[in-house]
Design brief:
Strand order of the largest sheet: 13-12-11-16-15-14
Shape: elongated
Number of helices: 19
Number of strands: 31
Largest sheet: 6 strands, antiparallel
Distance between the termini: 122 Å
Mean pLDDT: 85
Radius of gyration: 50 Å
Structural class: alpha+beta
Helix content: 25-40%
């Protein structure tokens, strides 16, 4: 009930002669209803005798609606000229003095700041906490205009605007603010509520407000928000240093005025983690940052190392595996600061005011990686237990990201090393083609791919050219690439045609997939292009398994792609491969490559192939220069796949370096061919090789006549080695055997194998060819 007072005038006969507005509010009765009636009609019960005697006390009235109203009464007699009483002036008020006192005490002693301002924003009442916040007593505020009591700032202008809004609209409002206060030395978070005050008639009379210091809740929310930011802002790249930089960027300036990340050296390399020493710990600075541009207060430069003493917070954090707090004045803090001042005295002015630090270990999967250090200088609050909990959680998340980056770098380095060891470092000597090659691993997070290339010398001065690409990335792809490269070399040594070789290779990939525990064949699939070039016939035969066709540049002509059927990728199985053959003039350039050169999700395929042909058509001083020009013109800016490029320029062995004879199946003619071979060697200036060559020609021609079938041909090739070949129409291949003491034959091939550098046989379309190579006398 409102605290209102009421007055009534009662004459000497006990009738009501006057009735105030307050009396109407207390009883619900108007003056017209009451004036002239006996006062006793208003009573709910008889007035106690002690009240009548004292003319003060408590009495009960009946409200107009029937309920009982207890009031505190005071009666004052009114006397006439003769001194006799003519009536009484009676005042009454509701009985609630204890409640009013409690309400006043609650307002004054509330734990939050509370104030009451009039509609003109002048202070009417201020409680004890509000006085503490404002830094002045209540007497200095009451009656003053709010803007006169605070500094002009964005917050105070906003606060005043909210007061006016409540005064004008009569609607309460609630909002949060982060600001300082006149008597506080730092900013606080406030939850502020304003509401209108109305009198008994409902008219707006003032605005009341309360401000609750919610700084603890605010910082808890900020720490949670930082953890959420860490989930998306740390580890965006699988790079150790960049991950450390992201940690610093998250901490400064929201959580620290300065932050640094120091890692153990092994994290940045490929070594296994060593045990943490009991003494000083050597750490390498990989990232730091501060609220001052350039981080002038840092005692270490990026990349430098420092040995932290056992008592220092970073060393303790690393050794104990928990966040370590340190504040100004503590021994460990003082020693740590002194070490930094001694190491970098130029940064001493920027370290003044440092009052709190926290060192948190970066541990992932039970392994210590390093330490993150946060320092507060301008921020007034020291780090506390809640900050330690937050730092450990953040450090744990950051450490996992750092460890992931470390593991990725290690796997990538291992895959790169494995692939590099499997790729040809120096291509073997041969005279069929000039060669230039490039291999560029991608910068993709997927890791190293399974691209490879090879140049394989074959018999008869021929050469095999290979490019391939294994599906996927990483160590698995590199290992599969190595197996396929070895298989291609083995099959090439058998001298299979390109289409047959790819058929055998396809079977191998299928078997490899079946050996991988039921994995899909496509997961171990690969593409491959295999080409054979014969410098004598100048013919290039090739077949592809899902691989891009090579580009050819004939002398004086424009570049073009070889029209050929790509065939299915390796590992599909059951489908044939088709061979393509073309004759190339000497000096033709052939470009073999993997799909990473022309295929990219952000590039148009047709445009990339046009760029490749255009780059191949630009004159260059050498194959090496042409290779570089192609990569510059065609490679995407950020390749997502590995690229292997094999450039060859064809040579030809003319008639002056090749001698061929048709051999009739008559053993009596063998001596004549020995003589013809000797004469050709003399013409070539290779008389020193005549003795061995005569034996080889005699043995191979004799075997072809005795065991082979016509037609029989003898061919000598002068290349980097002297090659003797004998072809016949039989497909039966010879083999070495050990002759017994009394055998009349069986020693010929053994003799050939011992006298020559190497020998072998290959199948041809019409039979077989037996060949033997011997080094030239001047090599």
């Amino acid at each position: 009930m409102e605290r209102v007072a009421a007055a009534a005038i009662i004459d000497a006969q006990g009738r009501v002669t006057g009735w105030s507005e307050g009396a109407r509010l207390l009883t619900g009765r108007t003056a017209q209803e009451v004036v002239g009636r006996p006062a006793t009609d208003l009573l709910a019960e008889e007035v106690p005798s002690d009240v009548l005697a004292a003319q003060a006390g408590t009495l009960a009235l009946r409200h107009r609606d029937g309920h009982r109203v207890e009031l505190a009464l005071t009666a004052c007699p009114v006397v006439g000229p003769d001194g006799a009483p003519t009536g009484y002036v009676v005042t009454v008020a509701p009985l609630d003095p204890a409640g009013a006192e409690l309400a006043a005490q609650a307002f004054q002693q509330a734990s939050m700041s509370m104030s009451v301002l009039d509609l003109e924003q002048r202070f009417l009442r201020v409680n004890h906490v509000a006085c503490q916040v404002m830094g002045v007593p209540e007497e200095a505020l009451v009656g003053r205009f709010y803007p006169e009591t605070v500094a002009d700032s964005e917050h105070s202008r906003g606060f005043l605007g909210h007061l006016r809004e409540v005064a004008e609209t009569g609607r309460p409002l609630r909002y949060e603010s982060f600001t300082g206060a006149p008597a506080l030395n730092r900013e606080h978070a406030w939850s502020i509520e304003m509401w209108p005050l109305r009198d008994h008639s409902g008219e707006l009379t003032a605005v009341a407000l309360s401000a609750f210091d919610s700084s603890d809740q605010y910082w808890a929310r900020r720490r949670l928000a930082l953890l959420n930011e860490a989930a998306t802002g740390i580890g965006t790249t699988l790079d150790v240093v960049r991950t450390a930089e992201e940690v610093v960027e998250l901490l400064v300036p929201q959580y620290a005025d300065y932050a640094s990340v120091d890692l153990l050296d092994w994290v940045l390399g490929a070594d296994e983690p060593p045990a943490i020493p009991d003494g000083g710990v050597e750490l390498r600075r990989v990232a730091h940052g501060s609220t001052r541009e350039g981080t002038p207060g840092a005692a270490l430069k990026l990349g430098e190392t420092h040995v932290y003493q056992p008592s220092s917070p970073p060393a303790r954090a690393l050794r104990e595996g928990r966040a370590v707090l340190a504040h100004a004045g503590e021994p460990g803090f003082v020693q740590w600061l002194a070490e930094h001042d001694a190491r970098a005295p130029a940064g001493r002015p920027h370290r003044q005011g440092v009052h709190s630090m926290i060192a948190v270990p970066l541990r992932a999967r039970g392994t210590a990686l390093g330490v993150a250090v946060c320092i507060r200088t301008a921020h007034p609050d020291d780090y506390g237990p809640d900050d330690a909990v937050f730092a450990e959680e953040l450090g744990s998340r950051a450490a996992v990201c750092v460890d992931n980056a470390r593991r990725f770098a290690r796997e990538r380095s291992t895959a790169h090393a494995l692939q590099h060891s499997l790729l040809p470092r120096g291509l073997p000597g041969q005279a069929a083609v000039d060669v230039a090659h490039r291999y560029l691993p991608s910068g993709s997070l997927a890791g190293i791919g399974g691209d490879w290339f090879d140049v394989i010398p074959l018999s008869g001065s021929r050469v095999a050219l290979v490019v391939g690409d294994v599906v996927g990335h990483g160590i698995q792809s590199s290992a599969t690439m190595g197996r396929l490269r070895t298989a291609v070399r083995t099959l090439a040594d058998v001298d299979l045609p390109p289409d047959e070789l790819l058929t055998h290779l396809d079977d191998l990939v299928t078997h490899l997939a079946s050996d991988e525990g039921g994995e899909e064949v496509a997961e171990l699939g690969a593409t491959c292009l295999y080409a054979l070039y014969d410098p004598v016939s100048r013919r290039l035969s090739m077949a592809a398994a899902g691989h891009p066709a090579p580009a050819v540049v004939l002398p004086g002509d424009v570049p073009e792609f070889v029209p050929m059927t790509a065939g299915p990728p390796l590992g599909v199985g059951g489908l044939p491969f088709e061979a393509t053959e073309l004759e190339l003039p000497e000096g033709s350039v052939v470009a073999l490559y993997t799909d990473g050169l022309i295929e990219d999700r952000d590039r148009d395929f047709d445009r990339a192939t046009d760029e490749l042909l255009r780059a191949l058509g630009v004159p260059a001083d050498s194959l090496e220069a042409l290779s570089d020009n192609v990569l510059k013109a065609v490679m995407p800016e950020h390749p997502t796949d590995d690229v292997a490029l094999l450039m060859v320029c064809t040579r030809a062995l003319g008639g002056d370096r090749v001698a061929t004879w048709d051999v009739p199946p008559d053993p009596a003619r063998v001596a004549g061919f020995r003589q013809a071979a000797t004469e050709r060697l003399a013409a070539w200036g290779l008389e020193e090789a005549a003795f061995v060559t005569e034996l080889v020609v005699s043995e191979l021609v004799t075997n072809a006549i005795r065991y082979g079938e016509p037609p029989i041909k003898l061919r000598l090739i002068r290349d980097r080695a002297l090659i003797c070949e004998v072809s016949d129409g039989s497909s039966t291949s010879p083999h070495l055997r050990r002759a017994h003491a009394y055998d009349e034959g069986g020693r010929g091939l053994l003799l050939v194998a011992q006298l020559t550098q190497r020998w072998g046989s290959r199948q041809t379309g019409s039979g077989k060819t037996i060949w033997a190579e011997q080094p030239l006398p001047d090599t």
